[in-house]
C-alpha cells in the first residue's frame, strides 16, 4: 500500500523536506507540508531538528499506465515558492525550490505566493529581490514582518523631594564630615511644586503580516494623594505646597507639616534642626547642637550648651543650663522656668522664674517672677522694665542691671568706644613713626626703604584721621540718644542686695545696702528709689 503521508526530521527545514519527498517518491507541488516542530540552533550548532509531516495531495490519477506516470515525473518542473506564516502572524518566510529543467523563480512568482498566503503587510522587497538574484534555494528567508502594538504608557508621579529621606551628613569644603548637619528635614515654602503627574498615553495599534489589526492597550492613569497643606494646580498635574513647612510622604500622601516634632532629644541622632515652621522638642537639646526655625521653638526638656534661633517665641518648659555656651535668640518672647549661665536676646520680653549668671538683652521687659523670682549675677539689659522678687544675693554677687537703653544701641556704642581706643593707639604709633623719620630726613637724605615707610605712614595717618572723625561723630550721636532714654524702671518685690549696679539711661547707682520692696527710676537726670509700685 502506498504511503499517503510521512513524518520526517532534518537539521534544516529544507533537509527534512528533501528526505520526505524522496521517501514518498513525489515532488513538492504534489504534497502539503505541515511543520510539527521548528528546529533550533545556537552558534551554528543544531540543538533541535525540524519535524514535519508531508502528505500527498488528493489528486485523481489519470487513466495512464505506470509507464506514462514515470515518464511524466521525468518531465521538467519550474522553480517553486513555499510561504510559511508564523502562528502569531507576525512573520512570513519564503523557501525557494530550484527548477528542474523549468523556468526560474521571478519576483512575480513570489508576489503571487504571498497573495495566496494572504500576506499583505510588511513585505521586504529587498530581501525577496536579493534571494532571487542570489538563487538562495532551500533556505528559509524572512520576507515579511508585522508591526507590534505599542501599548500606552501608564501615568507617572515624579516627586520633587526625597520620599526616602536618609541621614546625609554635610560634607565640608575640606572633605571632612559635619555629623551635626544630617539634613533630615526637607523644608518647603508656600507655592513650591512638590510633585508632577504625567498623563497616560493611548498607545499605537499594531498589524500582522496578514493585515489583522493588533489593538494597543491604553496606559493606566495615576492620581495624586495629598495630605494637609497641599493643593493641586488648576490643570491637576502638579501638587503645590499651601504653607511653609516640612514636606513628607505620609501614608502615600504628600503632606506639608507646619510643626516639626522631635519625640526625643536633639543630639547626634537628629543633628541640628533647620525648619521653616514651629519646632517642638519633647526631650533635651544637647550641648553643641543648634535649632534654627522661622516659627516658635518649644522644648519640654533641658537646653544645655546649645543654640536656639527662632523667628517666633522660645518656650522652655524646664529651662537652660548653658554652661556659658548656651545661646537663645528670639524675634519675639523668651519664656523659661530657669536660665543659668547663658546668653539670651529677645526682641520682645524675657520671662523666667530664676535667672543666674546670665547675659540677657530684651527690647521689651525682663520679668522674673514665680516662687523664687530671683536674679543673681550676670548682666541684664532691657529697653523697658526689669522686675523680680529678689535681685542679687546676700553674698554681694556682682549683678548689673540696665534699663531705658536699647541693648543693640548700647552694644553699638560700646563697640565704637573700643574701636575709638584702637584707632587712637594706632594714630599714636603712626605719629611717632612720622616724627622720627622727619627728624632723620633733616639730618640726611633717607634711604629708599625709609622713604617708602614714611610715605605709607603719611597715607595711614590720613586714613585714620577720616576714620576717627567718623567714629567720633557716631559716638556723639549715640550718646545723645542714650542720654534721652530714661523711661525704664527696676522693680524689686522683696529685696535688692548690695553688689548690684543699676544703670538707667546714662545714670548709675551702686547698691551698698539692702533695699526692701522698691522701684528704682530716673527723674530729672538722677536715680531715685521709691516704694514698690507693682
TrEMBL record:
This is RNA-binding protein KhpB N-terminal domain-containing protein. Coiled coil: none annotated. Residues 7-57 form the RNA-binding protein KhpB N-terminal domain. One of its GO terms (biological process) is cell morphogenesis.
Amino acid at each position: 500500500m502506498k504511503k499517503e503521508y510521512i513524518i520526517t526530521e532534518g537539521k534544516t527545514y529544507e533537509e527534512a523536506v528533501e528526505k520526505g519527498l524522496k521517501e514518498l517518491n513525489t515532488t513538492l507541488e504534489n504534497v502539503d507540508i505541515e511543520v510539527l516542530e521548528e528546529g533550533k540552533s545556537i552558534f551554528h550548532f543544531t540543538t533541535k531538528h525540524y519535524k514535519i509531516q508531508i502528505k500527498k495531495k488528493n489528486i485523481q490519477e489519470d487513466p495512464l499506465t505506470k509507464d506514462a506516470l514515470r515518464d511524466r515525473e521525468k518531465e521538467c518542473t519550474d522553480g517553486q515558492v513555499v510561504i510559511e506564516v508564523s502562528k502569531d502572524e507576525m512573520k512570513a518566510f519564503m523557501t525557494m525550490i530550484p527548477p528542474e529543467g523549468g523556468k526560474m523563480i521571478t519576483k512575480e512568482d513570489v508576489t503571487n505566493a504571498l497573495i495566496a498566503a494572504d500576506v499583505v503587510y510588511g513585505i521586504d522587497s529587498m530581501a525577496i529581490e536579493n534571494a532571487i538574484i542570489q538563487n538562495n534555494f532551500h533556505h528559509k528567508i524572512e520576507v515579511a514582518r508585522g508591526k507590534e502594538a505599542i501599548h500606552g504608557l501608564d501615568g507617572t508621579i515624579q516627586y520633587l523631594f526625597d520620599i526616602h529621606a536618609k541621614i546625609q551628613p554635610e560634607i565640608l569644603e575640606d572633605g571632612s564630615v559635619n555629623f551635626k548637619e544630617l539634613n533630615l528635614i526637607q523644608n518647603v515654602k508656600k507655592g513650591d511644586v512638590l510633585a508632577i503627574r504625567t498623563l497616560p498615553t493611548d498607545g499605537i495599534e499594531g498589524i500582522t503580516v496578514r493585515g489583522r489589526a493588533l489593538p494597543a492597550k491604553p496606559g493606566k492613569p495615576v492620581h495624586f494623594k495629598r495630605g494637609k497643606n497641599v493643593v493641586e494646580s488648576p490643570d491637576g498635574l502638579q501638587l503645590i505646597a499651601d504653607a511653609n513647612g516640612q514636606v513628607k510622604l505620609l501614608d502615600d500622601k504628600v503632606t506639608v507639616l507646619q510643626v516639626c516634632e522631635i519625640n526625643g532629644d536633639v543630639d547626634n541622632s537628629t543633628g541640628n534642626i533647620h525648619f521653616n515652621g514651629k519646632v517642638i522638642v519633647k526631650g533635651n537639646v544637647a550641648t553643641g547642637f543648634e535649632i534654627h526655625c522661622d516659627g516658635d521653638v518649644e522644648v519640654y526638656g533641658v537646653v544645655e550648651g546649645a543654640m536656639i534661633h527662632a523667628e517666633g517665641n522660645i518656650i522652655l518648659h524646664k529651662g537652660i543650663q548653658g554652661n556659658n555656651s548656651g545661646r537663645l535668640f528670639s524675634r519675639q518672647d523668651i519664656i523659661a522656668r530657669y536660665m543659668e549661665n547663658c546668653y539670651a536676646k529677645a526682641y520682645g520680653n524675657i520671662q523666667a522664674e530664676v535667672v543666674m549668671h546670665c547675659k540677657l538683652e530684651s527690647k521689651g521687659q525682663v520679668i522674673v517672677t514665680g516662687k523664687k523670682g530671683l536674679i543673681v549675677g550676670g548682666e541684664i539689659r532691657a529697653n523697658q522694665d526689669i522686675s523680680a522678687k529678689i535681685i542679687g544675693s546676700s553674698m554681694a554677687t556682682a549683678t548689673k542691671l540696665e534699663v531705658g537703653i536699647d541693648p543693640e544701641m548700647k552694644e553699638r556704642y560700646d563697640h565704637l568706644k573700643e574701636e575709638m581706643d584702637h584707632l587712637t593707639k594706632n594714630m599714636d604709633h603712626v605719629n611717632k613713626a612720622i616724627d622720627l623719620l622727619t627728624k632723620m630726613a633733616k639730618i640726611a637724605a633717607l634711604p629708599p626703604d625709609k622713604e617708602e615707610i614714611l610715605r605709607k605712614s603719611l597715607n595711614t595717618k590720613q586714613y585714620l584721621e577720616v576714620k576717627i572723625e567718623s567714629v567720633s561723630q557716631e559716638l556723639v550721636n549715640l550718646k545723645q540718644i542714650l542720654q534721652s532714654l530714661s523711661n525704664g524702671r527696676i522693680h524689686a518685690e522683696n529685696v535688692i542686695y548690695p553688689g548690684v549696679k543699676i544703670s538707667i539711661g546714662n545714670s548709675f547707682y551702686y547698691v551698698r545696702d539692702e533695699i526692701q520692696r522698691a522701684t528704682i527710676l530716673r527723674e530729672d537726670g538722677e536715680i531715685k528709689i521709691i516704694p514698690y509700685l507693682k
